[in-house]
């Protein structure tokens, strides 16, 4: 592992890592690399690629998070912990909930949380369509983040029920997502949200230029109780 590469990469986006954060990122990489040998967590395993395409990509939104009064953050469809774990390392004082539908991934995340000695963070196994109706989760979070691959219409139905009024959802998207974003506007409005920003940020990389796109949605009114719909419906039949 190349400590200087990690530090320099984060400095390119304006983040100066402390020694404790450097140690946590490198330990996270070790855990990810070893666990990936026995279960499919990521197709990206080379250290420098993980730093750029997972760690750095996860925290590109940090300035947007700093702008707002954000205390509680939920990561829906977190998978191997992206973007939630890297954001937690950068913002240790904030409360995080990581949600994923595969229990094996939750077990891995709990191992990461324990080994990195992270506090005020939980990993929960479940489907967003079900947990979004539970009172302990519904409209309880200041911010939702998601790098999940679902289209934005479906993602909005998964995420907006968890967010407080005046809270936000940041969706990580590819640069060429114009049609998907345009098609999602009706769903976002139905679910109580409004797109307030569409940000494009270059992801520093040695061998290619990667342009990341972040759709920021503000929750302007409560989501109707009938949403999210039952498991599978938002994916099969987006609003």
CATH architecture: 3-Layer(aba) Sandwich
What Rg, in angstroms, do the CA atoms define?
17 Å
- Under the CATH scheme, which class? Alpha Beta
Mean pLDDT across residues:
94
Number of helices: 10
Low-pLDDT regions: none
As a percent range, the share of helical residues equals 25-40%
The major beta sheet can be summarized as: 7 strands, mixed
CATH fold title: Rossmann fold
Compressed to H and E, one letter per element, the order equals: HHHHEHEHEHEHEHEEH
Question: Termini distance?
Answer: 45 Å
Number of domains: 1
Overall body shape: globular
Strands ordered across the widest β-sheet: 3-2-1-4-5-7-6
Structural class: alpha/beta
Number of strands: 7
CATH superfamily: Vaccinia Virus protein VP39
Q: Kindly estimate the percentage of residues that lie in beta strands according to DSSP.
A: 15-25%
């Amino acid at each position: 592992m190349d400590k200087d590469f990690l530090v320099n990469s984060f400095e390119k986006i304006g983040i100066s890592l402390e020694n404790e954060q450097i140690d946590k990122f490198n330990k996270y990489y070790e855990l990810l690399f070893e666990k990936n040998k026995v279960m499919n967590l990521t197709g990206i395993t080379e250290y420098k690629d993980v730093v750029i395409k997972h760690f750095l990509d996860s925290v590109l939104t940090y300035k947007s998070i700093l702008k707002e009064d954000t205390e509680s953050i939920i990561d829906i469809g977190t998978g191997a912990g992206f973007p939630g774990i890297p954001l937690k390392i950068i913002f240790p004082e904030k409360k995080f909930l990581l949600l994923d539908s595969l229990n094996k991934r939750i077990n891995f995340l709990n191992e990461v949380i324990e080994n990195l000695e992270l506090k005020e963070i939980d990993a929960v196994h479940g489907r967003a369509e079900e947990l979004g109706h539970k009172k302990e989760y519904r409209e309880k979070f200041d911010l939702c983040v998601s790098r999940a691959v679902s289209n934005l219409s479906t993602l909005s139905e998964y995420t907006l029920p968890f967010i407080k009024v005046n809270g936000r959802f940041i969706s990580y998207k590819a640069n060429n997502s114009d049609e998907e974003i345009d098609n999602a506007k009706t769903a976002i409005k139905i679910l109580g949200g409004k797109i307030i920003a569409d940000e494009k940020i270059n992801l520093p990389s040695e061998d290619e230029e990667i342009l990341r796109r972040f759709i920021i949605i503000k929750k302007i009114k409560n989501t109707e109780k009938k949403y999210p719909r039952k498991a599978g419906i938002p994916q099969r039949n987006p609003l």
